[in-house]
Amino acid sequence: xxxxxxxxxxPLGKLVGAKTARAxxxxxxxxxxxxxxxxxxxxxxxRGEHTxxxxxxxxEQVTVLAQVQRTAVRPMxxxxxxxxxxxxxxxxxxxxxxxxxxxxxxRERDLRPGRWGLFAGKVTEFRSRRQLxxxxxxxxxxxxxxxxxxxxxxxxFAGALIPVYPAAAAVPTWVIARCVRVVLDxxxxxxxxxxxxxxxxxxxxxxxxxxxxxxxxxxxxxxxRARRRLKWDEAFAVQLTLVRRKRQAxxxxxxxxxxxxxxxxxxxxARLPYQLxxxxxxVGTEIATDLASAHPMHRLLQGEVGSGKTVVALRAMLQVVxxxxxxxxxxxxxxxxxxxxxxxxxxxxxxxxxxELDAAExxxxxxxxxxxxxxxxxxRALGEVRSGVAGIVxxxxxxxxxxxxxxxLGLVVVDEQHRFGVEQRDALRAKADQPPHVLVxxxxxxxxxxxxxxxxxxxVSTLSQLPRGRSPIASHVVPAAEKPAFLDRxxxxxxxxxxxxxxxxxxxxxxxxxxSSDEEAAGEDDTTRRPPLAVTEVAPLLAEGPLHGLRIGVLxxxxxxxxxxxxxxxxxxxxxxxLVATTVVEVGVDVPNATVMIVLDADRxxxxxxxxxxxxxxxxxxxxxxxxxxxxxxGSSARERLDxxxxxxxxxxxAELDLEQRREGDVLGATQSGRRSHLRLLSLLRDxxxxxxxxxxxxxxxxxxxxxxxxxxxAASVAALVDADRAEYLEKG
Length: 733
What we know:
The chain is α/β, with parallel strands linked by helices.
């Protein structure tokens, strides 16, 4: 194929051969020349610089750049033949053993001390030594006798900077590098979609140069500029999408829901037993202004656990009811929906009992719609929703089903929005004749750059103050493996709280008897670790052991809805001393008398999740205590994570740590759509300035050319990076 025939859309089979193309498609989802060009190296190694073998995790698929230190051949004990052991090092002081089974004498001649190579395989551990069994490898440069290997793969790695690609066992990094070289030498680079004025203003290199340098860098400076340009393209595409959709949303009509003086909202404010915080009043004013607009509100309300988001949302719902509309609150679980129902009824009192003898003037009705409602109760509830008698409707995804019809849906409140799929949220909004106002709430603190990138089409409000009366939460790590006595003390501490009249949670990462949707252990593939502790196994052990004599309840996602609700009611009423649960208690569960939480296998949870969990205690006048039990050893990354949680209650600090320590994932929701994304390089944490600059340029460009008519190449590039499905994901966020 000649150069003028090959483009970024050319199938790889026409460039690298059918067999290799099949492997790239099967194992890495790479199908075209463009796919491969955007499959950028995950890192770059340099001979003489170590990759820190000591930091490798058991079970990890790795490629390491290392030097052969020594070899040894010994007979195998269990079967005939010899075992070749090759020790390699990387300059860090760490060593890795490569093991080859069978009579492979030629490998001993190949892998002589002093030679550098790339070695790829899965890390295992044998007798406290890290090793790769039968790894793939390619040797680099000259051997100790001056010979030079002549393979194409080695030539690819002859430069100072050695690219190491995201690879698979069947397609090692050097094979990918060989294919990339073919594409770079055969395919014309795509036309540069970014306007020349933007490239000049932001000092960006051309796209063709960036793609070449990111794969075959001529220098570290050239590599930096190449990566910066490709990051810019990703950030620019996302921001253009968000800015355009925000502009379009602002033009849509919505029914205004202005404040009505002397209505339900005013009556509710008058009966509140405490004063709103300054933050609640400020955010309430922002929301009230949005609701009075002729265009739909689309606002994100974020705040620490216990910052009073529910009261703010309830005041917004009452404003809509005052204006003749209905409000729906969508919760991710029946436990949380029922919790909201009871909590809102308690807050409203007679204001929420329309039609009853003790109802206040202008009262409304509050209805709970869940999948577990009986037929008679369901018909009654749906009738009140349909007629408009129920001004406030609470429920789970059951609100989305056919047959749940609203008289005039004016506001949709989505609690813990990250737990819902895009289609579910949109289905509820579609139940209104005109687009309803939308308020999404989250207690998971969102770093500024994430809010700017993922929620850039929403107005963002933040509650940072805690209401008066909320107690501090002390958090401590309990190193069970190093100091078993500390775990014994943790159980005694729990008993002391119960003896003082309080209650406690014990949280486990798994239900038991196989995986389930609410288990954090799902996908666990490290067979060298014991399974995560399970609720159904831990609860009886506690009842017979350290918590003998206490009233213990069990709560997890597999229980029938009626049983879950009964357990939560018992715990809330004080009929249970201890609730052994999964993360089903992570959001919304409000039992002010619960003062202590013990999280078992705490290292199996994420940082933000632990912060959410501990927010379940200290919700009353007594101080809260959270004990993070772990077998992770001191100095390990897991232990450092837990130490960080124990050292601060600032959720935004922890959210940034969480983002830094885990893979950031696809900011456009590829995991929800099940489709691959070309967003590879952008870091929401490290590239804050670049994201901000891209948003500034996007706003200016969209003001001049809202549909990008004068920039067709840019429009096509945005469509490729942010396809229609993901654009909707961003809009519906």
